[in-house]
Amino acid sequence: MTQRRALHHVPAMKTVTEFPRKVVEFPDMGIVMPDGCRLSARVWMPEDAGDDPVPVILEHLPYRKRDGTIFRDQLTHPYFAGHGYASIRVDMRGNGDSEGLMDDEYSEQELQDACDVIAWAASQLWCNGNVGMMGISWGGFNCLQVAARQPPALKAVISICSTVDRYADDIHYKGGCLLIENFGWASTMLSYSSRPPDPLLAGDNRWRDLWLTRLENQTFLAPLWLKHQHRDAYWKRGSICEDFSAVKAAVLSIGGWHDGYRNTISHLATNIEAPVKGIVGPWIHKYPHYAAPKPAIGFLQEALRWWDRWLKGIDTGVEADPAYRAYVMDSVRPARWHPERSGRWVAEQEWPSSDIKTQTIELIPEGNRPAIVASPQSCGLAGGEYFPFTFGPELPGDQRPDDALSVCFDQPALTEAIDILGAPEVLIRAASDRRQANIAVRLCDVHPDGASELISYGVLNLTHRNSHEFPQALVPDETVSARIVLDQCAYRVPAGHRLRIAVSNAYWPMIWPSPEPARLDLSAATLMLPLRPLAKGDEISFLAPEGASPWATETVRPANSERHVDRDEKTGTVTLSITDDFGEVRDLAHGLANGSIARETWTIHPDDPLSASGKTHWTQTLSRNGWSVRTETSAEMRSDAQNFVVTARIEAYEGEILVFERDFEEKIPRSLV
């Protein structure tokens, strides 16, 4: 369930090789921070920028520009440079080819470094003084957080697959429930940050010292995140929803319906006072010029419209664009992967839109007996990844296996199609027989033959029903009211299909289970469904995707991805096993070969929430001309009724010689609320 580097996906796009301005590249431009730490930047800019200064576009990441994000960087940054920008891709301190150490995501040091890079860039003779910041995921998060700090030169932001709330809408605690991705992502970063700089850039006599210092100070972030189980000051810092008005830069927010961060676009379009526009397509966790499912869009042309307006002062018409542009997906047969989603683009000039009306559907008629929700702990295996990433079998599958383990409220077959656009909600009244209980609600499209496709879902830790900051334990058998907000969606349900609302109190391995099996008596449930007048066809359009010349590599080892669910008929345990071998490729320009393999197992017994465990094992390799390094990182998480227990290990090899090893283990008290 971790975020993994994509299997190399060759996009169907037009390759542009001739640009209005000739581009020069600097593979390792040093930017020295006020404390003396040297950050390494890969920079593309017009050859004549010294005579005709240009704005800057900054992407500030821990994901290694030399061999990590290089695939997408090659498509994107030279394109911007060719159209009159200095495009700067910085390795954050403690990662890639930069010096220093990183101790957490979105730290004060990280955000201050970004502000210092912006100030440095704006002061260069080749810059016109205006800076934009962009990014996806981590880079989408930090560009919003940096914008809230209002560095003077920062005029515009393009934030993709990001969040405004670090606690409730990131990979940590969704609805107050502990996301498995919290542990999974910590495991991923332990592996990502364990790799050394490239000796060709850092120097033959220096790279090893930088690497060993980095390894000796490596942080396993899972224990830190588990120590903040409520929405306290740790999570509020960096959550721009605390003060939307702090963002003064113009914001273009983009996301995908098959991504875990699909709510941010609506939050920003609703709350930002600065110029803001939103676009949501059918995509997974990718930049939309090479994303899937298709249709991809001409993101780079759309981005240039944004940059040209706010960084160059050119009237490109972006201010007249609809506030919210969304792709309404057609119903499809359930599958773990869709290369394409049919549908249509719709446009709302204002957001929230007065065109969207809420239909209220009573799921439990007054006077009916309560519905008993007591799901096996293995309910949820059809849910897919939190944010699908690999152009592979990570989407939600047919929901019928999970539906069979849930309480389902099926609606009559539709006599005419409906377009759902927005965030469905379910209002409940329920009593629990335990002090803590989770609830998961799924909205499904049920085909005439019974196939069940997931439209949207939401989860809630019922002790957080009134507040994520100050939870309240449940009183056993006492009825409480709660509101479960499902993720934003845009989906057409055709005539002849029916809606299903499936309710469970387990959703593995999306969320960590409650410490005890719980029973919920659901006495009332109401679905609030946001409906838009049926779209007749595309209401807006985008240019076709294009990009600069793709990354030139040769394949050393082909990629392969596997996913299995195994049920031990003797013990009853259920195990989800995932292996993503991302293969190994060699850069044809500088010769560095890099390879990566991620392995995960998620195990649980249907009757025992304390049987839950997650294990990860990552292998990373780098090599060139007889030089090679390898890191092996492994981690495990389990819990009892009182504590979470997390362990991890790093092993680092130069050639076949073990040069570093370190073990982590920590027990963190478990909040029952």
TrEMBL record:
Q: Which Pfam families match?
A: Peptidase_S15, PepX_C
Origin: domain of life = Bacteria
Instruction: Extract the InterPro entries matched here.
Output: AB_hydrolase_fold, CocE/Ser_esterase, Galactose-bd-like_sf, Xaa-Pro-like_dom, Xaa-Pro_dipept_C, Xaa-Pro_dipeptidyl-ppase/CocE
Q: Does the keyword Disulfide bond apply?
A: no
Q: Which UniProt keywords apply?
A: Hydrolase
Keyword Nucleotide-binding included in the entry's annotation = no
Query: Under the GO molecular function aspect, what terms does this record hold?
Result: dipeptidyl-peptidase activity
Instruction: Please report the name of this protein according to its UniProt entry.
Output: Peptidase S15
